Amino acid sequence: MFKPKYVKRIIISSRRIKKGxxxxxxxxxxxxxxxxxxxxxxxxxVMPFFGNLLPQxxxxxxxxxxxxxxxxxxxxxxxxxxxxTNVKTNITDKDIIIVDDVLDSARTxxxxxxxxxxxxxxxxKIVVLVDKPNERKVTLKPDxxxxxxxxxxxxxxxxxxxxxxxxxxxxxxxxxxxxNRI
Length: 182
Ligand code: IMP
Ligand code: MG
Fold this sequence. Notes:
The structure is a single chain. By secondary structure, the protein is of the alpha/beta class. 20% of the residues lie in helices and 29% in strands. The chain has one domain: 3-Layer(aba) Sandwich (Rossmann fold), CATH 3.40.50.2020. The protein has helices at residues 14-31, 47-53, 107-117, and strands at 7-12, 38-43, 62-69, 82-85, 95-103, 123-131, 144-148, 154-155, 171-174. The structure holds inosinic acid (IMP) and magnesium ion. Residues 42, 45, 100-101 line the site of magnesium ion.
């Protein structure tokens, strides 16, 4: 298995991730059985989650993406969340599911929600792979989270450190000792 030096410990194995994504798909299939939601993925971190989730959906869906940046690949936040690339779909009166890799401080999600709400969608729900509830800086709960973890900086399965580590098939704790060597 590919296990770079900066991997301190594996927190969620690829087998567990697979199961978690299956649960997320089930939740969407059940809650949107009679609807055609617009799934908005937050790039780039959501890539593997979104790609594995999509083929398991047994309902009509529309897909779109937003690029929103706040972390800039560093361990600590560097700037205010900024929407870099917008949605292309008309979301007015539509059911929206925002799909993201991790909900951390939730500042990014808050900015995104208030932005999308201006376009008057029918509903907005949040589906994330990993929730870090103890890191919250604003009040916000995901409607579905496959995993809930403590306050550690994680990498892998889409999550990056300085744009690296997204390709790891598992989610791992990043070893801070390697911050300047990566
Ligand atoms: P938030 O605004 O603090 O909720 O986080 C915004 C974004 O930062 C998330 O969507 C992730 O892309 C990124 N992020 C948050 N926590 C981590 C982490 O532990 N590792 C890598 N990226 C993270
Ligand atoms: Mg993200």
